[in-house]
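Feature request disguised as a bug report, sorry. It would help if multi-protein outputs had a clear separator. Right now it looks like this:
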Amino acid sequence: MVIIKQLQEKVENIYNQYDASHDFAHIERVIQNAEAILESEPTADRETVLVAVLLHDVSDKKYTDNKNLENQLLDELPLSLEQQQQIREIIESVSFNGGNEKLAKTLEAKIVRDADRLDAIGAIGIARTFAYGGAKGRKLYDDAEEARMEMTEEEYRSKNTASVTHFYEKLLLLKDLMTTEKGKQMAEERHAFMLSFLQQLKKEREGIS
């Protein structure tokens, strides 16, 4: 699709200004996840899904105060007003927000959200967590820190928790929040790998051979 190629070229430089947890390689992996899910969801609109994936983090609050960037990019695309609004709603439903997520109302929204969350778990999810933690100067782990099971979006975003704590506050919850059958299947192995990693990390920290 010409529109997808053109949009990729526009957003690549934006994402590559972010740290390694949210760079353009992240977007490429989410596209790959979305394509895998789309194979099992033939009724979904592929163009809508891919445009939403390409734009879903351009206005991420962690990196920019420009809340209108995704709207500016959307306005430049030859899309109907209805499709633009659907893409905006998809993007709004992607974020976890400390468990205060918005409802993914359409199949396309469910695909984008699952595809993004699959990149937050497994081996890649582990790497991204520590990449982000390193960029923000966070501790690797803090045994005195309790994972929060209930919090507002502001509380979720404002506290610099240790990277391992993030597993318990978000990453280990994502498997059960997948919305598509393919997403659920893909999440199983990645979730198991995270559990194995945390067990090994605990052993090494405690000096258990």
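(second protein starts here, but nothing in the output says so)
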Amino acid sequence: MNCGEIAKKPAVAITPDKTIEEAAALMAQHRVGLLVIVDRENPKKPIGVVSERDIIRSIAQKIPPTATVDKVGTMHNFVYVYDHDPITAAAKKMRQHNVRHVVVVDKEGNLYGVISIRDLIGEKQVLEILARDWVPTQE
């Protein structure tokens, strides 16, 4: 099973000039924990992400809700996988980077979707693959 098969729903995107307040409203409206920040000129090109955690941190740091998402999100070095990667790649990256979402892109780097930890644990077949391929770490 590959990442493209799990990332069934389209990603919810936002442009970098939108505010934290607009991002929070969009997350609530779509019931998601991550928005993909896309290029204003090319909405297929992901350039960053903003998560619920980013919004909480911005509130704690007293950043005004009118600040733009590019000021609080992760820009350019966000965690992603390719749609043809095995689903284990998404799980490994989530664990390695301590994140709950990974962006899925196609071979050209265009936005394909998002995989959340909920997507992984909600699919019996995915859990079976992860259990079969799981290798204990030496921590």
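Even a blank line would do. Unrelated, but nice: The two ends are 28 Å apart (CA to CA).
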